[in-house]
């Protein structure tokens, strides 16, 4: 279970940027191609032109529904956050960004993954802010019990101890053969609670979003 959640946390960057990839890497692409003098041709093959209209039609056919759903979800999340006075601070965004960087093993690996996603760090921060809003909006529905945390601790004690040992080794600035204290439930409680909370947010997101769809007037006109 712990490995599954660790993989899920390592995939946070992918989760946060999915909408960005779709929107920036697909629809916005029509503005990124070099155009000819009339501003409509994006490519030529043996003199045969490919126009923006051709490009847009293909993107709509292949990715339009998914990208539109992402945009609609963003609009509803932002509207719901505004209605419930949910705000996100710069410190909260920075904290999440640090967590994501750590899950990739450091800033260098993180920046490589970010580059492959097609997003800038600022665009990623915008998506992180929206994810935090989602967490805050769903949070009242989520309860993590002591029993769940204790079960998680007992099932993953060895891995938690290994992580604590690794953190201790880093903190010791290279000291060798330093004994690492045995891991305890109380010492791990907050970390476990955060892991289980994130898992439950992910599990409840789709049903929560469906509830928003039923509360908001959503009209689509994509052909």
From TrEMBL:
GO terms for molecular function: peptidyl-prolyl cis-trans isomerase activity. Its EC number is 5.2.1.8. Keywords: Isomerase, Rotamase, Signal. It is an enzyme of class 5 (isomerase). It holds the Pfam family SurA_N_3. PANTHER family: FOLDASE PROTEIN PRSA, PEPTIDYLPROLYL ISOMERASE. This is peptidylprolyl isomerase. It comes from Heliophilum fasciatum.
